[in-house]
Amino acid sequence: PVGGKMAASEAAGSEGSSALSPGGEEPPAAAAGPSAGFRLTAVRREPAVRLQHGVSGLEPLAWSEDHRVSVSTARSIAVLEQLSDIHSGGQELVIHRTAVPAPAGGCLLKVGSKKEVAECKEKFANSKDPTVSQTFMLDRVFNPEGKSLPPMRGFKYSSWSPLGCDANGRCLLAALTLDNRLTIHANLNRLQWVQLVDLTEIYGERLYETSYKLSKVETPRGELGDFSEFQRRHSMQTPVRMEWSGICTTQQVKHNNECRDVGSVLLAVLFENGNIAVWQFQLPFVGKESITSCNTIESGINSPSVLSWWEYEHNNRKMSGLIVGSAFGPVKILPVNLKAVKGYFTLRQPVVLWQEMDQLPVHSIKCIPLYHPYQKCSCSLVVAARGSYVFWCLLLISKAGLNVHNSHVTGLHSLPIVSMTADKQNGTVYTCSSDGKVRQLIPIFTDVALKFEHQLLKLSEVFGSVRTHGIAVSPCGAYLAVITTEGMTNGLHPVNKNYQVQFVTLKTFEEAAAQLLESSVQNLFRQVDLTDLVRWKILKDKHIPQFLQEALDKKIESSGATYFWRFKLFLLRILYQSMQKTPSEVMWRPSHEDTKVLISDSSGMGSTEDDHQEEGTSKQTSKHSLCEVSKGTDTDDPADETLAQSSDIGGHEPMEEKLLEIQARIEAVEMHLTREHMKRVLGEVYLHTWITENTSIPTRGVCDFLMSDEGYDDRTARVLIGHILKKMNKQTFPEHCSLCKEILPFTDRKQAVCSNGHIWLRCFLTYQSCQSLVYRRCLLHDSIARHPTPEDPEWIKRLLQGPCTFCDSPVF
Questions:
Q1: How far apart are CA 665 and CA 518, in angstroms?
Q2: CA angle 800, 806, 810 (to 5 degrees)
Q3: Which terminus of the chain has fewer CB atoms gathered within 10 Å of its CB, N or C?
Q4: What is the 3-state secondary structure (H, E, C) of 130-168?
Q5: What is the pLDDT of residues 25-81, one digit of tens each?
Q6: Would you give the distance in Å from CA 61 to the centre of its chain?
Q7: Per-residue b or e along 471-497, where b marks 16 or more CB atoms closer than 10 Å to that residue's CB
Q8: Residue 425: CB atoms within 10 Å
Q9: How far is the C-alpha of 22 from the C-alpha of 15, rounded, in Å?
Q10: Strands lying side by side in the sheet with 450-458
């Protein structure tokens, strides 16, 4: 299956040539039957999300690392966020939908002063030379407003950054409109997307200041009145694609000459003339002030169509480059010099991966890091969609230099590939054509290079007759998102097109559970697609499989990591929801029957429906009873609410006992996780306080809370508390209620209640009472946290940046 081999010295970085030898192509997919070990089982998942507008651009679908799906449409980018909801008993996917609207005004690239540009446009439009006037009038880059032509609204491409780039530690969205405006957006409050920066405008200003020269030694070009110069200035700032790099570390020198490591990320923007602008952003990215630098690279590729980052790690050294593909066929890697980036290296010269001008345009490129089991080293698999074929290239560094093996996979589709996506965890590649056929390519390493196992997935067997416009695989490979419209019926095309985003499963429950148990990430939020498969299985079967319980208990006994405790809490919460009785009618709908209600004198927060469903005398009293029910179930734990709703008069006592038993287990796991986090907080207090100091953390209250339970015997906690109490020197530093100045005792991990009955919720990250009207909440509404203040020291700000201690979700 290996078409050619090229060795280029890593030190010299010399450019080599590679060509397919006769018979160097992979056998057709039909000839390579799938082995039984790689059988693909796809199951449809509801709901299907209908789009308000038709899709636009190439590769309209993208799935971020924080489980958000972006869909480029003619009026906006629809963003679908997948949640693994712990408060709902429904078996469907839980999706939170937002949108990034397209700008109302058109984008005019800055090619000169406004007066000069207006004069040149009038000159070219009225030119007697038809090659000038017609080219100018019909080019939408020169005329984005279009006049008599339809407006250029919509999006050409969107790209997600790595996790941890915005102020909340989530992904940024780079969006490219059809009229060539490149912007970066962030979703800071979950309900609204905010534009942080317009890179097209900034890049145009930079070019204007340098007279549209990339270097100082470059000779000046012609005037703007020359049509070729007018075209050149537009071409050098018309984006084609953009891609984010991984997060890298840069060194920043402080005022006292100390160096500190600062995270940064790179955004590569490919332009129409073949140039690549590499933007460097400091993290967290908050706007224009976060831009560190912008460098332009000349690729030398004519008619560039796509790019991707090549990031390779060899002997603890990270190497980087940019893979650029052309509409004429060639593919090559360009070196990227990253100054002041810790531990980063690059190639000295470009490396050609495919040099034939065979007129097969490169549509999409994916670079997948893998481990070579025979060579015992890391390697990179580069796959590119070219027409109806898949070009692949295996890159690995050995003592001989950079080894390149390349070939093509043929016989996959009868139509051109319209979309390609890859699961970067195991290297599986998915391609699709417009006829609804999806191919799964699984790389299998050989002694020399690799081969592919092929599998065909017919979406018509899952969704019926459909046409496909794009696919994207979830971060952990559990789901495949597909954009579909109606296919042909009885040989006839549909009258109307309804664009939908539909989901199919790519893994079984057993595979998802095994991956969660052996995960190196140990973060539930970053594996939402896997936890959703587990959630779906438990809600259907109404029990946790025995093998999963036993395996999880063994993990907890052997390692004791809090990740496995959080996984156990997740399973118990879903089991609790699966046993809830579905309400026969909507709870908020008022009853039209005259019922009698006896308001029982129940004490505290423990009232249930049994206390409020007795017979009464009037509708007014019935409404009052309904309010009492909502008050009685408004407890801190959401499970209490569902427990109250599920109680049934005169029966189902075994079910109620089961629910109470599960509730007790949930409380026990939550208490364990709370104690573990309290130990971490106390450890930070001990490390960062030298003398008796009144921090915002209620240190004495946390210590007393941990020591109050006689059944809790943790020697580490007792030793730590002893050291802290000795350092505090009998000082207590109690919290006081801001309304009545009374002392707030630390008797509850979730809330603080003063002697006058004022209730304040506690921050789950620092356990301080949140005595303000504004606070943050975790993504699944599991816990609340306060905002950092300017007076907080750095170590408390780091604590407040942490995720939820129960579900790993970020905090907003």
A1: 24
A2: 45
A3: C
A4: HHHHHHHHHCCCCCCCCCCCCCCCCEEEEEECCCCCCCC
A5: 444 443 334 444 456 778 999 999 999 999 999 899 999 999 999 999 999 999 999
A6: 13
A7: bbbbbbbbbbbbbbbbbeeeeeeeeee
A8: 16
A9: 23
A10: 417-423, 428-433, 437-445, 450-458
